[in-house]
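Handout, section 4.2: multi-component inputs.
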Amino acid sequence: MATYNVDRPENVDGEDFSNYFSAYGFLYNQKEMLEDPHRMASYYNAILGNKACFKDKVVLDVGTGSGILAVWAAQAGAKKVYAVEATYMAKHAEKTAVANGFGDVIDVIQATMEEAELPEKVDIIVSEWMGYFLLRESMLDSVIIARDKWLKPDGAMYPSHATLYVAPIFDFTDDRRALEHDTALDNWGHFTEDLERKYGVKFGCLDASYKEECKQYFYQSALWVDSHPSQMLADRTAVKEFDILTLTLDELKSNHGGSVKTQMRMTPVAVENCHNAINGVLGWFDADFRGCPSNPAPKPVTLTTEPTTEGATHWGQQQFHINPAIAVNNDDTLSIDWEIRRQKQNPRLLEVTYKLEVEAAATGAKSAAALHHFKVD
Amino acid sequence: MATYNVDRPENVDGEDFSNYFSAYGFLYNQKEMLEDPHRMASYYNAILGNKACFKDKVVLDVGTGSGILAVWAAQAGAKKVYAVEATYMAKHAEKTAVANGFGDVIDVIQATMEEAELPEKVDIIVSEWMGYFLLRESMLDSVIIARDKWLKPDGAMYPSHATLYVAPIFDFTDDRRALEHDTALDNWGHFTEDLERKYGVKFGCLDASYKEECKQYFYQSALWVDSHPSQMLADRTAVKEFDILTLTLDELKSNHGGSVKTQMRMTPVAVENCHNAINGVLGWFDADFRGCPSNPAPKPVTLTTEPTTEGATHWGQQQFHINPAIAVNNDDTLSIDWEIRRQKQNPRLLEVTYKLEVEAAATGAKSAAALHHFKVD
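Output:
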């Protein structure tokens, strides 16, 4: 009886620190995020491209990690930066602040954001809180709590807005996943035969349970992908838009639970390229840095994680499979009702349910609505 | 900011269930253990090769998982089997019991062993509790607690004994690890140069911290290996032997903390094959099924995880690197003082410290003692 890492951690009260924060306690992981060029350029331009917004301001960096956003804020002219970090990484952030000549400007506070005490209110909150499919990790909760407690009434949030997007796709590698699924089931068959023959124990009674486990793993778990724009069969559609300055914690939690309708029209060229079929829906996000009404950013910046030909950010996109594929034609309309909830066992992870319907452009006929369940683990 | 799994989970009170047990809640993981032929044959022979020991007995299976040991105990003639399992896997064990015709004999109890209440004391406790390097996972604690609470005074433990072994080795693939280590440091150098040039932030102040992180990861973390017997440079030596029938929880915990001396003499042929050098120490275990004095097993069985030419068990061996390698000659004597402790942050994981000294057979001269620290994560 021996396993290394826990594949799919559950979560109950009090277990959050070790399950969640410890992943950010190693420089190796920080380095990976610091090597994401689009992430880096977006935050760099948002802060150092808008120095006027930061000049002489008091800034709070929620989850500073290696301390890079705090250093940029100081370089942009902030008179004081409070850099809050729960993990041991806080010690590194302190060194980085000193090494970059901002030992007096940046105060690193090793604490969770909920526990941290600042000596004053702040003009700007910067944070890189976005997870896969935007909402995974639920770190936005801590940012909203920080805003309500520490941001001055006319203060700014960086990013100021975030939007969750989706688009239907055809994934040419999807066959491989189906093959892996079928192979896993075949293996189970051989395994139970062997077990009975060699050791006299019948395990066939678990066939259905194993089949269900495989279905959940291969077909109901969202997959990290780096999709190519040519795989998209319609323009992107926004599922949810968040104004980080006004969003409440209640809204954020109920937004996850609420149902949202999206409609997309199939684009002719894409559909033809993709054998007139959809076998997945792709989800990703944009984050916008626009400042706030009283202190708008002269040069607004958008960090997008959408499919590009230049390679994915470390967030990539999340792919929700559709198996079997659904036939579509030019100009057909795809309607999807979305429900995004937090997982009960670990509220930092997500459960996504979507109901999908295709209306044929030629006849107006509607396909039967198909319901899909996914986990974003 | 996005990571998938937590690589190296920490642990504090109350977090044990999600971090530890959830790894055993999937049939996929159970299947992996049930496909380990040496593990399977050993338990099968220990139970069904000693039917006389089990006939009309009351048996407790600690951590039954898929329920296979419980079914074998019932097949061996047990009149009642209590199968305790903390995870959802208990539901599968129940089905397995019924499907194999032992619905009335096997009572599955979904609970941790510490919480489980049995209606009577038992004659035999069976359990597959062994982790990497025998002691990782600390599941033996629960078995000892079960024994003290539920085993009749003259009852038997399966396994009845366990031994932790070590041997010096030369690993021909060790260069690769050194190369990976050096590459990681090189990459860090390029990364910090880029960061300063592109984004104006100095990270050189973290060089030493990153170097230390790499050292811990590449050179101070025990590695799962499937070693070949020809890599061993001396006969195996026992570090610790455990009599599972008499071992106390206090002894178990203090055994982990106590220092133990081992001595090994280099075997000529092996040393010549291996360039007269040691670059690692290998650790593994045997588990013995001998029954107990009042109910001895007519056919004792040993489950060994030592290097063989037939391929590793799923436990493999744990390799502790020595870098740089140490020169040795035929008949030299290797002395090692061992300390095996539980990690403070997660007591299910281990910390191993060993002090190593070589006495030259030719001259009697002793090398300077070198101290090595490792984590078994």
